[in-house]
Design a protein that fits this description.
By secondary structure, the protein is α/β, with parallel strands linked by helices. The protein has three domains: 128 residues, Rossmann fold (3-Layer(aba) Sandwich), CATH 3.40.50.11220; 74 residues, Udp-n-acetylmuramoylalanyl-d-glutamate--2,6- Diaminopimelate Ligase, Chain: A, domain 1 (3-Layer(aba) Sandwich), CATH 3.40.1390; 119 residues, 2-Layer Sandwich (Nucleotidyltransferase, domain 5). It is 34% helix and 27% strand. The two termini are 21 Å apart. InterPro entries: CbiG_hydrolase, CbiG_mid, CbiG_N, CobE/GbiG_C, CobE/GbiG_C_sf, GbiG_N_sf. This is Cobalamin (Vitamin B12) biosynthesis CbiG protein. It comes from uncultured bacterium Contig3b.
């Protein structure tokens, strides 16, 4: 995860630095921000308002960690809160390092999981307030996130949680293989409200929450300077020809030479899809048979970018070979896998 940490006092700054060091050791990408008079090695000076900082963080980071009072965090993020499906995880760590509190996007944004991890590493106490966690019940949004499933209706997602909290049975069906025991509260029998894991449009229950698998990844390549609009049209045209919806994509993939390509970055942000980039050596190691290009080999050091990137980003196999148009390339890969109850 990309995590931004912010503090407003000397003590808060010291705690943020400690937390960032620990999180970096766990594989996270961290940036620490502090008031200029409290900045230490590695800190970025906070020269804008907290609200402006939060606005940038909501656009660029996966999680914001406030090392300060929770009231400050609430006021700072308030103008930017939009949707639990897209808002980043927001957490508060008190200056004493005693409590870690997820404020926003506890499930889909991963704030609860991050709070538990941070608390464990700092020997702090996690303070979770989401009802399903407090009551030890199945959380459908956590299940969907863990299995890479798209939630088609947030209203029905809330209805499932409400039914489980009320002690009602919720149905469950899946077109994919299922591993693990069915959680308490779910039933494979008849029910008024149920969960259906499927890429189709079936309605096995009177009220059906469909969770759509995301088995596909797209490999994209482009000439320098291609706009997000051009790339989006190209992507959507090819997905339509393949009969694949945007909601079935798990990621975009490309070569690391395109890591800072503005159009690709803007497209990734607009679609809410991660754009994973790979070095030429990593792409060369991708398993499969790919369409070689002498020109691509000369420019990038690897004979195929989009096909190899699609395979690596999906973890599966090539489904649609390279399509090229107007300086852009597209390939599609797919991974079939079972869903799991932890």
């Amino acid at each position: 995860m990309t995590i931004w940490l912010i503090s407003y006092t000397a003590r808060g700054r010291a705690l943020a630095a400690r937390a960032a060091e620990i999180l970096k050791g766990a594989g996270h990408d961290c940036r620490t921000f502090a008031l200029p008079k409290f900045c230490g090695d590695g800190d970025e000076p906070l020269t804008q308002s907290g609200a402006d900082w939060a606005g940038a963080g909501f656009a660029e980071a996966d999680a914001l960690l406030f090392c300060c009072a929770s009231g400050i965090a609430v006021r700072v993020i308030a103008p930017h809160v939009r949707d639990k499906r897209t808002d980043p995880a927001v957490l508060v760590l008190d200056e004493g390092g005693r409590f870690v509190i997820p404020l926003l996007s506890g499930h889909l944004g991963g704030a609860n999981a991050l709070a538990l991890d941070v608390a464990n590493r700092l020997h702090a106490t996690p303070v979770l307030t989401t009802a399903t966690d407090v009551n030890g019940l199945f959380a459908v949004d956590v299940f969907a996130k863990a299995n890479g499933l798209h939630i088609e209706s947030m209203a029905l997602c809330k209805a499932v949680s409400a039914a489980l909290l009320a002690g009602e049975k919720v149905g469950f069906r899946s077109d994919l293989p299922v591993e693990g025991a069915l959680p308490m509260g779910l039933t494979t029998g008849d029910a008024d409200l149920g969960i259906y894991v499927s890429a189709g449009n079936g309605q096995p229950f009177p009220r059906t929450l469909r969770l759509t698998p995301r088995p596909y990844a797209v490999g994209l390549g482009c000439r320098r300077g291609k706009s997000a609009e051009e790339l989006e049209r190209f992507l959507l045209d090819n997905l339509q020809k393949c009969g694949v919806g945007l909601h079935e994509l798990r990621a975009l993939g490309s070569i690391d030479l395109k890591k800072d390509e503005p159009g690709l970055a803007a497209l990734s942000q607009k679609l809410g899809l991660p754009c994973v980039t790979y070095s030429a050596e990593e792409l060369k190691a991708a398993p499969g048979d790919f369409t070689p290009s002498a020109f691509v080999q000369e420019v990038t050091g690897v004979d195929s970018v989009c096909e190899r990137a699609a395979v690596l980003a999906s973890g599966g196999t090539l489904a649609v070979r390279k399509v090229a148009k107007d300086g852009m390339t597209f390939a599609l890969a797919k991974k079939e896998e079972a869903i799991r109850f932890e």
